[in-house]
Amino acid sequence: MSDRIFNFGAGPGVLPESVLKEAQRDLWNIAGSGIGICEHSHRGKVFDKVINEAEQVCRDLAGIPGNYKVLFLQGGASLQFAMAPMNLLPKGGTADYLVTGVWSEKAVKEAKLFGTVHEAATGKGSKFTRIPAAADIKYSPSPAYVHFTSNNTIYGTQWRSEPAPPSGVPLLCDASSDIYSRPIDLSKYGLIYAGAQKNLGPSGVVLAVIRDDLVERAPKDLPVMLQYRTAVAERSLYNTPPTFGIYMMGLVFKWIRDTGGLAAMAERNEAKAKLLYDALDESKHFTVPAEAGSRSLMNVCFRGPGEEMENRFIAEATKRGFEGLKGHRSAGGMRASIYNAMPRAGVEALVAFIREFDKKEPR
Amino acid sequence: MSDRIFNFGAGPGVLPESVLKEAQRDLWNIAGSGIGICEHSHRGKVFDKVINEAEQVCRDLAGIPGNYKVLFLQGGASLQFAMAPMNLLPKGGTADYLVTGVWSEKAVKEAKLFGTVHEAATGKGSKFTRIPAAADIKYSPSPAYVHFTSNNTIYGTQWRSEPAPPSGVPLLCDASSDIYSRPIDLSKYGLIYAGAQKNLGPSGVVLAVIRDDLVERAPKDLPVMLQYRTAVAERSLYNTPPTFGIYMMGLVFKWIRDTGGLAAMAERNEAKAKLLYDALDESKHFTVPAEAGSRSLMNVCFRGPGEEMENRFIAEATKRGFEGLKGHRSAGGMRASIYNAMPRAGVEALVAFIREFDKKEPR
Question: What is the number of alpha carbons within 13 Å of residue A104 lying toward its C-beta?
């Protein structure tokens, strides 16, 4: 029996146990080098292999085209909210943002420091319970790029597929909470970035994939660490990168590959989400605020009939070994995050608990 | 017998073995929570204790005054090279830099993007083999701050004590490679920052300590992630921080405390460095380019009579289990980095090898 419990936290999230076991060993001594992974020079042979393999498997998983650069950055998606416009929004230009929640709003706020932002769609009116339909999106005449947030952890909504930007306009995406949870066609994107701590690894490292023609759009008088061209030119090794995070990301990529790749991952994620949503839809007491076509397969947000019952549910669940079910402080209610590494068994156990709780509840 | 070897790499550097063992356990399940350290929410109770303890022990070790904020940041010292002037160099202002090597030069380059830089002293003329004396330093009339690099990994030089800035002018310091290697009086500093990967932990996290009156000097239209005030206001939790790095730093702080604190650390470091420098000074074949009063206690840089012999020395050392002795590519020669976590036994073994090699060498 494992001494580990089911962690439904929204991030940093659960990691595959096989990855943790490998990391335990390599912390002490990786690849028989006599030196632990955190202690290796980022310019030595051992780490060279680590970062090269991480990039290669990352590329293989999504079939990333050759004209795209894979970067490992720092500062989280929150720093990307600023870096993207610093690099890609020219002076006097306009960028279009599709606003689907708090994270999109934060991205907008940073972009406004560098140029004009046009909100091509916003879900604010519907309390972010739905993803805009194509007809709801009104692009500006000539945007420098279109930015969207593929999955919204706080409201439990997710784009089924990418929005279609005007022809020739680069599509930018914050995919922090659903990257590599399903197959993805990177050729539709100009830039995609994701903090690792939900589907890819520990916090402190960002995966960014950028189309190479965009790299040189940045002004050259930006701080060197805030230009994509620096990371491109130095293959993410301009300065000491977060070596442990890159190492862990590499292990997670291999775990995805070895468990069937992105298509198999998507199947498992769809099945896990269906189990949960079905149980909630069939319940007498629980509701899902997100609209049917917009429901997230990563963060299942749900409510009870009142705060008293919600708190009781969370407390009881915690006692049973289900951790991290409290909804985001700005949304309330419950949230079960079921990222790639959440095993089906965890979801099944939670579903059984939900049904049991629902049945016992009077009314 | 351990399967680990002696790692003299300049960074990421060796970590204490007791810290690695604790991290191995906690990667799987920390504090009996059933969840590994990398998988805990940065807003949950377990991580709250981790970051609070890290900060508290950090404060206790150096007796950090109450009007200083302790921050855990991302992006390495390289991002601080830009953040410091972005926040502390007002438009039209001048900042004074003491240039003692490549890292200082990089800091200058970033600062020039935001204002005027006055090089109050530079060791360029002497190939960075010495730290400027007080008489060599010519400050500008009214600098916004004075910046220096306390230890220079590439040239093996180190300030014995802080430069004295003009009265009332804040002193800024990149202490990446010698922080907490000796007692430090933080009240002399306005801002000190250090990438963790030499003396404090794994790469990917920066320790910054800032005097609180400086925090509000920053313009408010900077990206939110690039303002010190954000990290101050949110106690380094504005977005998901590098949780594993902060955790590891906390363990290293406790290890320093439990092995006697900074004064004991300094004694051990001085003794280790003396062993090495004595062996080199007494040798027939090796020389130390750094001037006597400027020698680093962290990075012992030395040369042989020619590249052929140097390469032979490094190759032979590697075979014997001494890793990371090759000097920086821009300086050549050899470099033994003997940070806090390098045990005296490692230095003794290297000294024995140096003496043996020196004796066998013909001439």
Answer: 31
Q: Name the phi and psi angles at B112, rounded to 5.
A: -65, -20
- CATH 3.40.640.10 domain position(s) in chain B: 17-258
Class of the CATH-defined domain B17-258? alpha beta
Instruction: Give, for B356, the enclosing helix (H) or strand (E).
Output: helix B344-360
| pLDDT tens per residue across all 363 residues of chain B | 579 999 999 999 999 999 999 999 999 999 999 999 999 999 999 999 999 999 999 999 999 999 999 999 999 999 999 999 999 999 999 999 999 999 999 999 999 999 999 999 999 999 999 999 999 999 999 999 999 999 999 999 999 999 999 999 999 999 999 999 999 999 999 999 999 999 999 999 999 999 999 999 999 999 999 999 999 999 999 999 999 999 999 999 999 999 999 999 999 999 999 999 999 999 999 999 999 999 999 999 999 999 999 999 999 999 999 999 999 988 999 999 999 999 999 999 999 999 999 999 987
Residues of B in contact with A241 (CB under 8 A): 203-204
Closest partner CB to A74 (pick from B201, B204, B243): B204
β-pairing verdict for A6-7 and A334-337: unpaired
Which residue does chain A place closest to B339, by CA atoms? A39
Q: Give CA–CA dist A318/A277, Å, rounded.
A: 20
d(CA B159, CA B171): 14
CB contact under 8 A, B223 and A113: yes
What CATH architecture does domain A18-258 belong to?
3-Layer(aba) Sandwich (3.40)
Active site residue B127: no
Q: What is the ipTM of this complex?
A: 0.98
User: Considering only the top CATH level, what class is B260-360?
Assistant: alpha beta
Q: Count each helix (H run) and each strand (E run) in chain B, helices first.
A: 10, 13
User: Which one of B26, B69, B159, B174 is the catalytic residue?
Assistant: B174
Asked if A275 contacts A348 with a C-beta cutoff of 8 angstroms, the reply is yes
Question: How is domain A261-360 classified at the architecture level of CATH?
Answer: Alpha-Beta Complex (3.90)
Q: How far apart are alpha carbons B342 and B298 in whole angstroms?
A: 10
Predicted TM-score (pTM) of the model is 0.98
d(CA A207, CA A76): 9
B103 among known catalytic residues: yes
Catalytic member of A69, A96, A159, A174: A174
Residue pairs spanning A and B at CB distance below 8 A: 217
